[in-house]
């Protein structure tokens, strides 16, 4: 979770992520983690700037052959 997406971000005067959306996201991540665990896998969840968190994870794991991500599509006005 990148804090920049949840702190002081507004779109058309409304918070980008309000309390209901945040709860939905947290519940969805929890459910995904539980589903993966039942299948013998896991889900790594971290809070911080992705450029820092991913670098630290790669260092911690040591043998990473690929990193995959998606970037949020931004509306052009």
From TrEMBL:
<dbReference type="GO" id="GO:0003904">
    <property type="term" value="F:deoxyribodipyrimidine photo-lyase activity"/>
</dbReference>
<dbReference type="InterPro" id="IPR006050">
    <property type="entry name" value="DNA_photolyase_N"/>
</dbReference>
<dbReference type="GO" id="GO:0000719">
    <property type="term" value="P:photoreactive repair"/>
</dbReference>
<keyword id="KW-0157">Chromophore</keyword>
<dbReference type="GO" id="GO:0003684">
    <property type="term" value="F:damaged DNA binding"/>
</dbReference>
<dbReference type="InterPro" id="IPR002081">
    <property type="entry name" value="Cryptochrome/DNA_photolyase_1"/>
</dbReference>
<dbReference type="GO" id="GO:0071949">
    <property type="term" value="F:FAD binding"/>
</dbReference>
<feature type="domain" description="Photolyase/cryptochrome alpha/beta">
    <location>
        <begin position="1"/>
        <end position="77"/>
    </location>
</feature>
<dbReference type="InterPro" id="IPR036155">
    <property type="entry name" value="Crypto/Photolyase_N_sf"/>
</dbReference>
<dbReference type="Pfam" id="PF00875">
    <property type="entry name" value="DNA_photolyase"/>
</dbReference>
<dbReference type="InterPro" id="IPR014729">
    <property type="entry name" value="Rossmann-like_a/b/a_fold"/>
</dbReference>
<protein>
    <submittedName>
        <fullName>CRYD protein</fullName>
    </submittedName>
</protein>
